[in-house]
Amino acid sequence: MAPEFAIGTGRHAVTLSEYGFTPESRHADWTNTEFTADSPSHVSAYRLSTA
Questions:
Q1: 17 vs 38, which has greater pLDDT?
Q2: Where are the chain's structural domains?
């Protein structure tokens, strides 16, 4: 599972889980290339919790 991500910085930062989103996956690009520390970009997918 992908790590939690925050939107914003400092005291204004919120996590997507605060809005009911759960990290689903993270890839380096739209072709699902593995994300690594050397990846210049990323694509993250989240699932909206229904409960």
A1: 38
A2: 6-48
